[in-house]
Design brief:
By secondary structure, the protein is an all-alpha fold. The chain has one domain (1-43). It is built from one helix and no strands. The protein has one helix at 25-42. It is elongated and about 35 Å long.
């Protein structure tokens, strides 16, 4: 199965949790788009 490891600069643990002070909108959006693209290609 195709896989990829990606580090999102400036994003710490829980950066996708929009109820946390660690939320990083730009990186969360990029990560979500990457996730959706992976599903489109692999599922």
């Amino acid at each position: 199965m195709k896989h990829q490891l990606k580090v999102y600069p400036g994003a710490d643990h829980a950066f996708h949790n929009d109820t946390s002070e660690r939320y990083v909108e730009a990186q969360a959006t990029a990560a979500w788009n990457d996730t959706l693209a992976w599903f489109k290609d692999n599922v």
